[in-house]
Amino acid sequence: LAYAFGISGSKKYVDEFRNQVIDFVIHNPPRFGIHWKSAMDVAIRMTNILIAYDLFACLEVKFDHSFAKLLAATAIDHARHIVANRERRLLSHSNHFLAELAGLTFCGFYLRSTDFGRNWMTRGLDALSKEAFNQFHPDGSNIEGSVHYHRLASEIIMTTFAFARSAGIELPQGLARQL
Known about the structure:
The chain has eight helices and no strands. The longest helix is centred in the first third of the chain and has 20 residues, at about 40-60. It is about 70% helix and about 0% strand.
């Protein structure tokens, strides 16, 4: 929708984004129903919403205060759900855990004016920087043995770190030298 708005300039795309977010929030209360079953899905959903919101902001769209307040509350609900329901298993690494860390980081980016937002952002980036090295074998292949998971893991890691860098957020020690 942000892309369509950028090309056309039609406010209908801004309204549609706003309406879709509001509709989801109203009809899918936190931690209830199928949309809250997987912490990975929760993380990916919120990351996509926040990236779209940021794209609209780059296009100089100004959302009303009530929508911004709703979006912040939704990001808090999503981050809390991710923290409480992470799929990390001892001695097991997966793209689910990686996506959850990225989602927590994105919620933290968006809420970084608050103490808990900065905490989520820092915790997410630190854990993601460590987990990034657990996702791949020394030869560069993905631990899950799938080209599709290799792409997914790479996309999650690079999108999160690229966003952090573009926002002027310092990456964890050691990681910046690796990239």
